[in-house]
Amino acid sequence: MSAGLRSSIVASYGERLLVFEAKAGVRAGSVLHDATFHFVAHPGSVVTCLHRSSIEGSCMLASGAANGAVHLWDLKVPPQSNAPAMRMLRHSRPVTGLCQVSDDSLASASMDGTLLLWDLRSTGSPLHTATTPGGAGVLKIAPGPWGDVLAVATERGLHCLELFDFGAPMADIVPYPLQRPFSDIVFNSVTHDLYAGCSNGSIQVFARLA
C-alpha cells in the first residue's frame, strides 16, 4: 500500500470497505476475488459513496454513508479497530457526493439538501455550508476542470456552486425546476463542457461552465 491508492482498488459492500491490490496486468473487466484487507467502515449503515484523494502519493480515502456520516481513512495500513482518521458528522440524510477541492478541503453533499466544506487539518464543524434551491436533495456533484466550481445535480435542478464563495446562492445551469432530474454529471476535462445524463438514457451537454 505504500505506493498509494493508485495501486489499489477499493470497493464497498454494505457497511464494509474492501481493498484489493491492483497487480500488474489487471485490466478493465478483470474479476478480483481476494481482498488485501477489509473492515467495517460505517457500523450499522450502508456506504453510499467513496472518494480517493487526488494528491500525488496520498493514501487518503473518504467514505460517506446512508446515516449522513463522512469518514476519512489513511489506507497505508489496515485501520486499527475500524477507527477512521477523522469523522465528519453533520449531514442528516445519505451522503451522495464527496470531492477533495484542495489539499486541505473536502466537499460533501447529501440528500438533506446541503453541501459542506470541511477542513481536513482539523476536526469539528464544517468551514462553510451551502444549501440547494428549495432544499432539494443532492444526487450528484462534479468538480470543474479548473477546481473553482462544483456542478450540483439535485432532485429538482442543475446548479453551479462557486468554491471561492461557498456560501453564496447557487446559479442555475438550466431553468428551475427540472421536469426530470439528472442522475449523473461529469465535466469533459479537455473541452470543459458538462455532460448530464437522465435515467431515460438522454444526455445533455452544457458548454464551458468553468
Quick summary:
By secondary structure, the chain is mostly beta strands.
Q: Averaging pLDDT over every residue, what do you get?
A: 89
Model regions low in confidence, pLDDT < 50 over at least 5 residues: none
The geometry reads as: globular
Give the topology string: H per helix, E per strand: EEEEEEEEEEEEEEEEEE
Structural class: mainly beta
Distance between the termini: 35 Å
Helical amount:
under 10%
- Oligomeric state as shown: single chain
Describe the main β-sheet briefly: 4 strands, antiparallel
- Total helix count? 0
Radius of gyration: 17 Å
Name the beta content range: 35-45%
Describe the model:
0% of the residues lie in helices and 44% in strands. The model has no long low-confidence stretch (mean pLDDT 89). It contains no helices and 18 strands. It has a four-stranded antiparallel β-sheet with strand order 4-5-6-7, with no helix packed on it. A four-stranded antiparallel β-sheet has the order 8-9-10-11, with no helix packed on it. A four-stranded antiparallel β-sheet has the order 12-13-14-15, with no helix packed on it. It is an all-beta fold. The termini are far apart.
